[in-house]
Amino acid sequence: MGIALLLCFVGTAYSQSVRLYGKVTQKSTGEVLPGASVSIKNAQMGTLTDAAGNYSLLIPANGTTITVSFIGMAPIERKVTQGGVLNFALDESADNILNEVVVIGYGTQKVTKVSGAISTVRSAEIQKLTPVRAEEALQGQAAGVTVVQSGSPGAAPTVLIRGIPSFSGTDPVVIIDGSPQSLTDFNSINPNDIESINVLKDAATTAIFGVKGGNGVIVVTTKTGKKNQKTEFAINANFGVQEVPRYIGVLNAAEYGAIVNEGSVSSGGNTIFQDLSQLGTGTNWQKEIFHNAPMQSHNISARGGSDKMSYFLSAGYLGQGGIVGGTDKSTFDRGNFTANLNFDLAPKLKFIVNATDVILLSKGILENSFNSIIGSALNFDPTVPVFNTVPNTVGKYGFSNVILSEVFNPLTKLDNTYNQNTGNKLYGKFELQYDILKALKVSSRFGYTKYDDNSKTFTPLVFYGLNNVNNTMNADGTTVDGAHNNVAHTKTSNFNYTWETFANYNFKVKEDHHFETVLGFSLAKTSGNADGASRQDVPYNSWEFADFTAATGTNSATNSTALTGNYYQYFRKNLSYFGRVNYDYRERYIASFTARRDGSYAFGTNNKFGNFYSGSLGWVISSESFFNSSFVDYLKLRGSYGSIGNENVSPQYVQVVTGGPDYGSTANSNGYNFNNVFYPGSTIGSAANNDLAWEKQLQANIGFDLTFYKNKFSLSADYFDKTVNGLLFTPSASLYLGTAPIPTANIGSTKSNGVDVSLSYNEKISPSVRLNNSFTFTSSKNKVTATNSDGTAKIYGNSYFNGQSQTVTVFEKGQTPGYFYGYKTEGLFQSTAEVTAAPTQSGAQPGDIRFADTNQDGAITADDQVKIGDPFPQFTLGWNFSVTYKKFDFSAFTYASVGNDIYRAYERNGNYTNKVRSVLNRWTGPGTTNDARYPRYIFTDPNNNIRVSDRYVEDGSFVKIKNLQLGYTFPKALNGGVFKSIRVYGQVKNAFTFTKYSGYDPEISGGILNTGVDQGAYPISRIYAFGLDIRL
Amino acid sequence: MKNTYIKLAGLVLFITVLGSCKKWVDYNPHDDFKVTDLDYLKSESDYQTMIISAYTPLQWLNQTVPIGDIASENSVAGGETASDILPLQQIDDYTLTPVNSTLEDLWRVAYEGVNRVNYLTQNKDKNKAGETVDFDGKEALYGEVYFLRAYYYFNLVKMFGDVPLFTDKRLELSDSRTLTRSPKADVYTQIELDLNNAIAVLPTTQAQKGRITKYAAQALLGKVYLYENKFDEASTVLENVITSNAFSLVSDFNSIFLATGENGPESVFEIQYTNGSPYSNWGGQTRGQGNYSVQQNGIRGISGSADMPYAAGWSSNLPTKELANAYSAGDQRKDVTIMDIEAYKAAHPQYGLTYQVAPYKNTGLYNQKYLPRKGETSGQVELNYLNNFRTLRYAEVLLMAAEANNRASKPNDSKAQGYLNQVRRRAFGDDLHNITATGTSLKQAIWDERRLELAMEGDRFFDLVRTGQAATKITGFQAGKNEVFPIPQKEIDISGLTQNPGY
Fold it and tell me: Which keywords accompany this UniProt record (chain B) (predicted)?
């Protein structure tokens, strides 16, 4: 009876239906589209096409509207009045971004419904660049994002979203498939696996990340399979050769000898090189350390799916050798294995597993100091031959008789550099999605990152040269008294997870009022530990035996470091609640409201939780009935305002520290020895601030999206204004408090504002020629508006050394973050009379730099130091150009950075170290030059010409042709029916750099306070590569 | 029905999770295995360990020793160039301004010493948790603590004159900007009080050489009295040290300054350094267990055969010719105090010695007492020389006693001569050079002897100021100004302290 009744109902349901069936294809290629959605509009009924692109759907007999959609294609709506065969051909929608969906926090949103500020970069653009790290693909392609690249293989670039809010902790948070990770994790994402990167920039889009969102959010979505799709394989191979694009001009041996003689004699010393004619050109050490290095990447992936599951599987390898020292000494290798799997466990229950395992291997060299490999190559004695020819001395490479410490033969240094780091990272997520009601979905997601890392460094005994202070090996190969070689191991293990549960409920009121809501909570923990051990006396002073197990050192009363061990652990915990309501009326009026409540284990007891709110409004003017333009296709105005935070804090407490030396900022050491026996001691090592809280940011954004001229142009522009309060600063405190570190407090603030613009222009010139242009413009102005109570706090960047320890970058009130601080120059003194007439400047003589008396107190003092440069660009521009002609495709990416200054800090300025060629323009007598960059040369430098001054500041603005690529896709006929497509291409990366900067490369990455200070930064290599993309 | 249950159960679970979550972000330093102030000073060993670190800032005052000579006519700053070691150059050239990183550091570390001591005195009877921890020898142990506070304040008052004075507690952030400078006399009163408290409880000998003894406290008190012109009191307290017969003059003057001569029979108090605990922080060169100033004194690029004893350094703190000339012929102290590198090279042809001439302000002379020697450092070689500072030698006790007796309210010149001549007898190895002068000329002889005996040990500048000779002996010295160094500008800016006159 029951069954009969049921059948009856079914019968009723279908009695008024007719069957519609047919095929869905891609218009441009005619290929079938498996997995395309065919559904009845405004009803929850639909189906997907099968592997052959066929569908079959029951529709009401009285007719309805059918919607056909497929990712990346423009959906089609068609009124149907009868059953039977109906085929659909979909067109690519890339030309029309308005149909796209962006991934935001805890959901997705149709681009047309977005009222916040988001930049998007898609897989096609990423793949064209064949980047080592995916951030590279954001440079100049995502408006509002500033990226300063690093040349060292695999090294992290500086990434800033919308200005510089602070002096540290400015990294945006990275969300990979919903799971929070960090910017450093970009080292382990295979850029080939990325479907899209959405950069969330304003408060409306980031506030749902609360205390994690203050620096912007980079949302990475990786590829997934498609249901009911035949397996599609993609194979990519890329092989290239890297070279150093340029050398820095330094003196050759004869020039060097002459300058050294001049410096010595003018200081009242001896002539150092008696016969300059014998010196010749000598050795250019840069040519000795730079080598062409290979770079390659290979990827294979498979994606597809059945009725109940879909999959994306990929494996990749990337290897980048370093141009400094070659692959032996400097390298980055990465292997990726990814499985993204979706299962329909039950009709309403979905299970998603994403898992990626990454193997990392790297070797590094000493960088960014005058005695690094590059620093040594620039500063070392050019009269020294490459190979050692001095009888009765060990050592393969030559040594200097005048440079006896600090700077070494770079080859000796390179030869004695031994380290390696291997890492294994497993990251991904488990996610359950349950459709409780038609439009109510609950998701529970466990995202994790497990990273283990193992590194080893061997410090051998080295003979640097006769009389060298730092020798640990004597000229005859014996060990210097008390010296030991050393091997050090470090193992770190980190585990981070986030458990998030949230409900999405979408509903509408009276047909036209659409609501999309989300509500949920998140628990997060990051944790890790590291242990290390080191041991002296590695057998045979050899890397081959460089292992703790082979070393033989044991501690004794006089040597407590023969065998050492260390360990540390850390953790962080967060708890958050969040919610959002998105509203739109016919996609014409848009509004959104977000709230997040964040708690952190690190906040002081008085401030455990913080609340963050934001709202945004949008108005699609072009949808109004009064709007009638044949020129403008779409116009939306957007505005948002809200608060976000930054959790740059660690818990504070009054700690008693027991032990010995302290390597912290105040070197608050412990311990003492009695008659050479060391005893550890204890002291108060820290203090607590119970009011410790988050950085609070208020950001306003207004912008518009405009498409015009037959959808060929689209323009998005945003203006933002943000205020960051509560930056962590160390309050200025009386010196008589001693050296126990002062606890930081939330007392600083900054203001930033700027404009992000992106413009694209697409043109189909003829059926066979397509043109595609996109431009981005990113600018920001930043100012530090408060530090400590009296505004005296200055955060200095790392020091560099040029005979004195110098710092040039400062973060302080009233200035732009990380600006260059030093003396202004006003030419050179030409005569003693000029020196006498000028403000008192101790030690000055004719030929010395005349420094500016900026405070006009009649004397040159420390108070005369002012802003002499800014390492951050006023604006950056990106231009992506691509053209396809029949089977050929060409693309070019150009990036420009304007207004960034560089401080040249790689010159050691030792009496006997080599000099850059500009010293040849030096002052040699009245009237020879008045350029402050070229003072007289003298060893003793009584005027301190080497002090931090604008003498060393250069305009680092540049235009770089970052990528040139020419590809050819084989005609189908040649594919033998096996392949869907085969494409080959040739590529030049970093092809040209146009800049006035005299160093290797005007991109000098680093923290906020190290960016733009060139201490011999690893230059970005030029890469000539060819590649192959196959789909089958 | 079933569905409703599931949903209800789900809701209950959800609420439970939300409710219990708050604990997730609680934090206790013990979660990170951190020992806090509330956990500490609960045993004798805690006290012992914390007192060790009250000694630590002694090592950090390292640069007071080179400054003591560079600021005087004994030595020049030297270094690589005119722009090398600017803080010391400015002290040398009397172009000193309140912005001087070395002086700022010395100011700060002396106060760290005071704060460390204060924390111990503040928690002497009851620890932070309110408990009393008693153990045998606690009082004697605190004798060391009092000595150290006196030592730190003595340094401050010698260098800067009137300084903030506090003894009640370790200062916290809330105490910032609350203090003003106390008169010198009040600081001296506190130093005397601390030293007398120390003398009352300290043992005369310590099992660990280098620990503070009663005699060290008496000798320091004697010196403090001299600085206060309290000669009668000085005489009494120094007499205790002498009559104890605990110390003797080492006949071979050179051996005092060798590694083997450390904490020897003449040593009353030495600041201990060692190479056994290598340190490598260039951000705080003086904060390890090694003696940084030794590297500064070294001869640039010195090299030679394996048995040549010296290691290379930075040619700073170079003795002047004038100092060298102050020694009479036959005074064994001259070659121990000053190395004439060319003379040394000529005298030791077997070493095949080579070196770089000091590139700035070369005198050809080096501070032999504290020259870097091979095998006496480790790790980061520049930072880890083992040489102790012979801070208070018995010879100085004798010279102080001589001065005290000579200048006492009832002078005893024969006693003064006796003490002075003990020192001279050791120097010349005979009685032919004994001083027989009396009165003022004896006083001058004692002062001159102090220079010869203690040169390059960091005493000269302070001695010249103390004895009122500075303006006549030091080029560039302005009376009424240069008796003290400027208060660091940063402290003036932050704490609103007054500056010393003339700066």
Answer: Cell outer membrane, Membrane, Signal
